[in-house]
Amino acid sequence: MPNHFPVNRLNNLLLALGAISFITVIGGAVYEHLAFVPQWAAAPPTSLALLQGPYGMRPERFWMPIHPVTLLLMIAALVANWRTVRRRAMSMALGGYTLVLIITGIYFVPELLAITGTPYADTVDAGLQTRAARWETLSIVRLVFLVALALTWLSALAQPAERKIAVPAARA
């Protein structure tokens, strides 16, 4: 009788760890959009004081390590589950997350740095306020897409961990 238990346990563990990390990303984004983004985006450059100076918030301390960890866990889980029916859902979620990270690097991070790097002033800049509102709206769309991807990833947990494609037996 073949012993698949340890393999299935590793498959499940990596899939669950990938899910936890991915959901942590979403939790961070939800927190930022409920408590933080509306504050700094409200009246720039005045409201940007939250992010500036020696005591300004540094969200990158969360975002810079969580994305590589999440990617590595998701890739490891996909490799461990490659020969299972879970592969399709996991591949879609990982591909979508990778696309989101590419778009984030191309638009969201540079635009955020441009907006938040604006020097403090006691007046509100209407153009900057419009850019901040656009960034916030598009970021919420990105968050909704991430939630859909997380649900896709989580759907793999409901699928069997048994191998879909038989592994050839070792020859004696």
List the keywords.
172 residues; mainly alpha; 0% strand; elongated
Please characterize this protein's 3D structure.
The protein has 172 residues and is mostly helical. It has one domain (5-158). It is 69% helix and 0% strand. It has four helices and no strands. It has helices at residues 5-41, 60-80, 87-116, 126-155. α1 (5-41) runs antiparallel to α2. The radius of gyration is 21 Å and the shape is elongated. The two termini are 17 Å apart. The mean pLDDT is 92.
Short note summarizing the structure:
With 172 residues, the chain is an all-alpha fold. It has four helices and no strands.
Fold blueprint:
Blueprint: H1 5-41, H2 60-80, H3 87-116, H4 126-155
Binned strand content:
under 5%
Anisotropy-based shape: elongated
Please give the count of helices.
Answer: 4
Largest sheet: none
N to C succession of SSEs: HHHH
Number of strands: 0
Find the structural class using helix and strand composition.
mainly alpha
Task: State the separation between the terminal residues, measured CA to CA.
Answer: 17 Å
Low-confidence stretches: none
